[in-house]
Amino acid sequence: MSNSRTPETIRAQEYAAKATASKIKVAVMAPNTKGMMQGTIVDSSCTITSPKSRIANEGGAAQMVVFTEGEQPSHQLAYTANQDEIFTCENVLYSNWSVAIKTIRPAQAAREVHQSAVKILKHPALEDTVTASFGQFISEIKPQHLSPVVLQRSKRMVLDSIGVGLIGSTTDVFDLALQHCQHMYAPDFISSVYGRSNVRLSPTLAAFVNGVATHSMDFDDTWHPATHPSGAVLPAVLALSDMMPASRKPSGLDFLLAFNVGIEIQGRLMRFSNEAHNIPKRFHPPTVVGPMGSAAACARLLSLDSSQCSHALAIAASLAGAPMANAATQSKPLHIGNASRLGLEAALLASRGLEASPLVLDVVAGVAGFSAFYEDYRPQPLVSPHDGHAFLLEEQDMGFKRFPAHLGMHWVADAAASVHKLLVGVGPGKVSPDQVQDILLRVPLSKYINRPFPESEHEARHSFQFNACSALLDGEVTVQSFTPGAISRPELHALLSRVRLEHPHDNPANFNLMYGEVQVTLVGGDILKGRCETFYGHWRNPLTNESLRKKFRNNAEVVLPSAKVEQLIEAVDVLDRLDDCQDLLSQLQ
Amino acid sequence: MNIPQSGGSGEQKVTGGQSEVFIKSTGITESFGAAIHALGASQLTDGVINRSKRMMLDTLGVGLLGTRTAVFNKALKYSQLFTSERSSSIWGRSEITLPPCYAALVNGIAVHSMDFDDTWHPATHPSGAVLPALLALAETLPSRPSGLDLLLAFNVGIEVQGRLMRFSREAYNIPERFHPPSVVGVMGSAAASAKLLGLSPSQCSHALAIAASSAGAPLANAATQTKPFHIGNAARRGLEAARLAQMGLEGNPSMLDMDVGLGVYYNDYSPSTMPDCASGAFRWILEDQDVAFKRIPAHLAMHWLVDAALAARGKLQEAAWHFDLSQIQRVTLRVPPSKYINCPFPTTEHQARHSFQFNACSALLDGKVTVASFDPAQINRPALKELLSKVEVKTPADNHPSFDKMYGEVQIETARGENCTARCNTFYGHWRKPLSQEDLVEKFIVNASSVLCTEGVEGVIDVIENIEKVTECSVLDSYLRMTSNTLEQVYSTGMI
After folding, report:
1. Range of B35's domain?
2. Closest chain B residue to A449 measured between Cα atoms?
3. Distant-in-sequence, close-in-space partners of A409: CB < 8 Å, separation ≥ 6
4. MmgE/PrpD C-terminal domain spans which residues (chain A) (predicted)?
């Protein structure tokens, strides 16, 4: 096997290249013709040297072996944190090398394998579970672990999230949520509410209504793998900061750290499933990872200890999960509101000593934990902040929306807008439905955003057909495109009735891989085509700071005076340097 | 019309509205909304009235006892962060009121805090999600619901849970993924609350749809303090869903019809419509399937094992003149396979309530299992730990993880070569062998007396016995708050 380039050897080579520490060596093990495992050392220069060892193995699957010099592993290494991935230990191979063996799964990223394997070698104790590693991370992470890139990106998220929350406070569904809280509970003058200077609520209720506002128009940020990370976290962190006494308000940097912890935890959890990389089918992701992110952020802000942080996550897991069926209804914004509220609640309960499963993130056969929400769940421990943890936000930037609809709509809208431009040129002007014979959309297959004739604004925000036709008609999609008057336009319906959908194989339902293509056949037989690979606002083509601020101004000025809007921009801009986050909070009051 | 899953290069023609793209079958959610709205008190049969009154009494007794637990007190302290103008009673607390949603939360937690509440088949704890929500809601309604209104709404909440449990074959077995009360409980609470609020058929459907977004807690939190929260949250969030639907909030009106709706909680979801209750086709599930009442505060499966262990102990005592526990060499338990109730060495009360091993050994050691068996001091006894180390658990193929089919068998082998086996097929309290009314009332008295004065205990018994004739069901709340004075003092000095 010395020259074979199986996926396992390639992954091991990548790993070996990254494993700069001289104390680590990597080998690929594979069964030979006699069923014995034969090992090949892979060195960091990515060449494969001759086989040096043999390890008997019953399973016969390819394995990666990590050797660590000078550390004595105990046989507790055989503890199966994850029942499917059995780590065993062999001291016999080399006198001074310890060995951890990991069965390689095609889906695992090399870096994650590296981290978990090394971690198991270092902390072979039974309490070294995935759940405990998360609790420890949340409890031990410090502001100095935030890199300039992470700070910059997270401040953009905070600003955008506040902006969409402010404009969201003008929606019907927000009114309903707020009325509910005011009707069911006595006034409680603690935490502020977006766009309502005279209203204050209990912290969890404020987190709820502000979360609803953030997602009320589906205008909030989207990450990859797909979830809306900020709306579940920011309202909870704001409400909890409001709750803290003036003498103990978090600094701006503590505030940003808690926010980033909430984002990071969501990103890590999303990577526990391959399925989760695609546009979802069963559970609405913000209801699954959102409460966990909110709980983590609040646990960080409350400075809970590592065990309480784990419990906060486990309590939140019991409050997670809502079916996709409520997408495109008024109940979907409530998903984000509840994620924010319930995560805060979980952290507050954990701080009171409430306990939950210490294995909630781990795999235990026959007793589902967080794995209940996934069909292909594979948890990985989180690297301790002291061992060179890097925030996911550093590698994976955020998608910001330019108009209030499901992210998938942005590709077809841009593609359709380019066809509009071909037809009427730059500038105002409408496409007449009489010119159009047929509209073909080539989009990914995802049932819940395929709605031929949407009847409500919530359905319109989840309709390829609607967004493509609106852009074709008007040259753009805006906040106004989703008003009842705009939705019911006869010329729009005339276009909608001419739409066909195709789902090409090369267009997967995945925000990192999908494209949008619009092909319009005119009455005369001419064919016009528009295609969008990466819309402006996508993480590969991020909004400039100017565009982001322009979006914020447009949103915030709907409810706030311009002076206040500029002060908010300024407060978020210097957030990491504020001694007291009250300077931000007071702008929202 | 079925849309193929895989995308093709050819066109995929969608000829209709979203319903055709989305829905597995139609009209199921609607039929539930219609039934919740239309079911009337005249449809309650004697059998259903009798059975549901037993459930209510048992739930209240178990809940009153549960107000003495640590988990209840944590939940209560948290909930006291919230206030409201119209507030609801907390069972066993004369001085405290909370907003209705939080009263439903803490009272629901009390009911399940010791895992002492009723169990149905297919497996769920039906009453704890419904009764606390209804009592909390009834107290704040200007319409002042009668006892019969309460009884009807309660049965609607139970019925909806029973129907939903029958949408999956898997659900007939002891669960592995989601804790059933966290799935169907919140739906039952929403249905019952919608009924008491008198919502329209469409609002009832939306209440269910909204509640579905609050459903589902993973099983991993069983045997922890968070499990009682599953019932409390089901009560709270179902009530909240009904209130939101009343205000006009909408969810997916086909929630029950779809695999991506309530179906996400099951691997083999196969929903069916609720029969029209105006026609003769409607029949209450409770009529045909009674519930089980627990005699010990532990997971239902423990009851088989405790009864088998007691019988084995009795046999051995009969056979050996000087029976000595230290002579036991091996204890073999034959139980159904269910990972979350197989706990060899429990360290907390919550684990002990979910441990075959613990319950069998407690029974062997003490000749009984009671509320006191789950005290920390009892759990940590060296004699018990020694006995636990001799336990072997076997899961024979003929012992199914279903409360309708399982059995419990205990085999004891001693150093002197004695060997005896006892088996329990149906414990006393199981639906095939229901508790006598006398024993049910006795269980209530013992539980309730730990918190209420005699007048309160007797008052609750009297009201429940005559619930269909009571003009205002809120009279119940006053009795539930009649605490015994000594306990009040203990609470006020912070001794508990």
Report:
1. 28-287
2. B18
3. A403, A449, A461, A462, A463, A464, A467, A477
4. 403-576
